[in-house]
Amino acid sequence: MAAGVAVIGFDPLARSWVPASPKKQADRSANHNSLVDVPPLDGTLLTDDASLSQAADDFGHIVHRRPTAVLRPGSVSDVVTMVRFCNTHGLKTAPRGQGHATFGQAQVEGGLVIETTPLDRIGTVGPHSVAVGPHSVAVGAGARWSDVVRATLEHGLTPAVFTDYLELSVGGTLSVGGLGGQTHRHGAQVDNVTALQVVTGAGELVRCSASRHPDLFHAVLAGLGQCAIVVGATIRLVTAPRTVRHYLLPYNSLRTFLEDQRRLVEERRFAYVEGQIAPDAQGAFNGYVLEAVAYGPPAGPEPDDTELLRGLRFNPSGVQKETLDYFDFLNRLAPAVEALKAAGLWAYAHPWLNLLLPGDEAESVAGPILSALTPDDVGPAGVVLLYPLIRERLHTPLLRMPDDPVPYLLAVLRTCPPDDEDAVARLLRANRRAFETVRDAGGTQYPVGSIPFRHADWRRQYGPVWPRFAAARHRYDPLGVLVPGQGVF
Hints:
Layout: E1 8-11, E2 16-19, H1 22-34, E3 44-46, H2 49-55, E4 69-72, H3 76-89, E5 93-96, E6 112-115, E7 136-140, H4 145-153, E8 157-159, H5 170-176, H6 183-186, E9 193-200, E10 205-208, H7 214-220, E11 228-239, E12 243-251, H8 254-267, E13 272-279, E14 285-295, H9 305-308, E15 320-325, H10 326-330, H11 334-343, E16 353-357, H12 362-372, H13 375-378, E17 383-388, E18 408-413, H14 421-440, E19 444-445, H15 455-462, H16 466-476
Parallel strand pairs: 4-6, 5-6
Antiparallel strand pairs: 1-2, 3-4, 7-11, 8-11, 9-10, 9-11, 12-14, 12-15, 13-14, 16-18, 16-19, 17-18
């Protein structure tokens, strides 16, 4: 490290930018020297400045932790080799897919970042994998969901659940849960995994499922990478529609909006239900839009507007409806993302807030949070989402949900200039306050956002499943080398 170069890091609990300690800088140099002992690899171990700088950033552009090296694996064996190496040399390590974390979750100060993007094969993953079959597909952890669905659609099949943005890695969303508009029918993405291929924190390659090493299987799905690195997954498939009927239904009342959403998911009237909240001309977030989608043949009957919209209390003057190709519907954010990139807004900071509310408290909890929002709190490229899930469809133990039959996801996907440190700090404080309000009402956080969290918060988040989670961590990552950026253990 050149003399006179200051290393700056973000302390999320102190909510301030602080210089790295001399010890941390010395540890980084020592760790770099230990890399001379790396065994031969099929892929590449990168230590150039550009690779390390990229791995020290993410979609959030808030936290910056610089690793010692980045592994671009040529095989799953490389992941095994380097996790064992990290155990031997006392290095921390974390997998990184598309780098879409918002709060440094996949960053490692002075350790190893493992890129999963080369592990992107679809249909043939590892010695035990299967090709696309009538009910499932095996994929690599680095495969993007957009590529997975393109491959399965060739067989008339589709994964059952998608997040709204398709350019995320399979391993990334399975580590947190994977919620979307189809979740009320099919659960989260983690609820649609039949088997995993993982590298444990001890460096063992293991295939697991609900019947084979079930404790590991349930500790990895939505487990934030704390017990093992996902390198492959077998995903359940369902019949795909050729086209869908897409509706945007405006509402003037939060209560009516929430009640109609709840009615739709309980009746299973639509295949997809979400909701957005936009500001009016005065900047108040009171424009409620229910988004609903009905699948056409062969996944369902030909959509009937009259029957599908029966009894709903939307404002008829602003209704939008259209028929879309199925993939075009799934990928509908792609043009907007390209526009954001062209405008430079994709590079803004993303101090996101993602919360899970008890359904019975959704109006009383979400209402004050929404009424306090201003356009500056959301930013020029921000989005506010609010939509219901069905608790009985969600079976993954570590995907923590409120104790309510119809919980709601509230997501305030904030943006602000990345160099505006005061704005970032202000929004992080607001995230923490909103989380505490939701927590006190019986809610949880969906851990993809930017909420300053302490160890005690994690213990409370996991509640009755914490002892099993901690036991799995001790068993499968006994030296605690995996994914320190989550701050769970």
